[in-house]
Amino acid sequence: MSFSPAEQRAMRRALELASTPGVPLGPNPRVGCVLLTAQGTEVAEGYHRGAGTLHAETAALAEAGEDARGTTAVVTLEPCNHTGRTGPCTRALIDAGVKRVVFAQPDPNPVATGGEAALRAAGIDVEFGLMERESRRLNRAWTFALEHHRPFVTWKFAATLDGRSAAADGTSRWITSRAARVDSHRLRAQCDVMLVGTGTVEADDPELTVRDEYDGLLAHQPLRAVMGVRALRRDRRVFNDSAETEQLRTREPREALALLHARDRHHVFLEGGPHLAAAFVEAGLVDEVVAYVAPALLGAGSNAVADLGISTIADIRRLVVEDVTTVGTGAEADVRMTMTFQAPTRTPIERD
Fold first, then answer.
1. Rounded to two decimals, what is the model's pTM?
2. To the nearest 10°, the Cα dihedral for 273, 158, 291, 331?
3. How far apart are CA 82 and CA 336, in angstroms?
4. Predicted pLDDT at 351
5. Of 63, 2, 76, 91, nearest in space to 33 by CA
6. Torsion-angle region of 203 (φ positive above 0: left; ψ -120 to 50: alpha; else: beta)
7. Looking at residue 219, what is its pLDDT?
8. Any idea which residues carry the catalytic annotation?
9. CA 79 → CA 24, 54, 115, 164, 185, distances in Å?
């Protein structure tokens, strides 16, 4: 594979375009495209703005017009080869007279794949793999969901330094600072499902919406999913008109994720109580853990996760720390830890 400096610069710009704030989450990935002349000069650029809108390639082609002929299209994702709400990007590129296509990540969607082969068959030079890691990171949950046939699961919780998520009397507002809560809403906005159990709805009556730093509702809200079979009172805030809500009438995490996957949901933000968290951990269905740890002690109360059936240190579930960040300042500071689970292993007991 050979990529020119101009193509590398264009791919970085395409990734920036794909990351444009405000693009609503949905069944489609984030994609950016830049068109270059043979001399490496940018002709036009575009990005996908949400379901039903022009794809990145066709947006760039529309901006370029006749100037698209003979260009190189630098795209963050393999151009699609199917007709959905819009036509195939491969046909648009061929018809526009594009000479070369460079893309970062092959499309894992079996419905849309085949773009590379279609472009080559039309005589277009195609190369891929430029900044593929960055493209996969950009569409992490979308890619994971297509490759694993279930949504990516982020388990988020807040706890004191001694691991308590609620006091002995059940109160839990607020363990962490306002800065941590604002940061948590930022992460919520990156997901398309907020998931809790029926017990959390009955006990805490959460609204499960995403808000900005001024406590205003964001325009695009994740699906609020409530998992469990018990009947819920309709006066619970989760049933208000601030966002869509669905009750998943199952206690099985894998079945709940299958139902959400069938709805084209790619990223679940798990905010349920300790028993729901334990169920997902035991099922091996937590892909990321985000823990907000407050520099405070309770000494008693609910743990962040319920009993995992571990009775000996040899069976401890260890996690890999990916990031540690201080959120807030001074007395209003908490620690945010982002982690993934290690594969469980048994290690010999050390002896003195």
1. 0.87
2. 180
3. 42
4. 40
5. 76
6. alpha
7. 87
8. 57
9. 20, 13, 5, 48, 33
- Please answer whether residues 77 and 68 qualify as being in contact, where contact means their C-beta atoms are separated by less than 8 angstroms: no
Distance (Å, rounded) from C-alpha 36 to C-alpha 58? 15
Cα gap 104→119, rounded to integer Å? 15
Distance CA 232, CA 126 (A): 55
Tokens 């970062």 label which residue?
A: 104
The DSSP code sequence of 37-90 is -TTS-EEEEEE--STTSPPHHHHHHHHHGGGGTT-EEEEEEPPP-S-SSS--HH
Q: What is the DSSP letter of 217?
A: B
Interhelix angle 56-64/89-96, rounded to 10 degrees, is 20
Q: Given this model, what pLDDT does residue 142 score?
A: 93
CA 250 from centre of chain: 23
8-state DSSP, 311: -
Axis crossing angle, helix 56-64 with helix 5-18, rounded to the nearest 10: 110
If you ran DSSP here, which 8-state letter would residue 34 be given? Answer: E
* Distances, alpha carbon 25 to alpha carbons 71, 105, 123, 265, in Å: 30, 19, 35, 9
Q: What pLDDT does residue 344 have? A: 52
Tokens of 349: 């007991």
Kindly state the tokens that stand for 331. Answer: 């007395």
pLDDT average per 10 residues of sequence, the chain (352 residues): 91 96 80 96 93 90 96 96 82 96 92 88 96 94 94 96 89 88 93 94 92 91 95 94 95 97 95 93 96 94 92 92 94 94 56 40
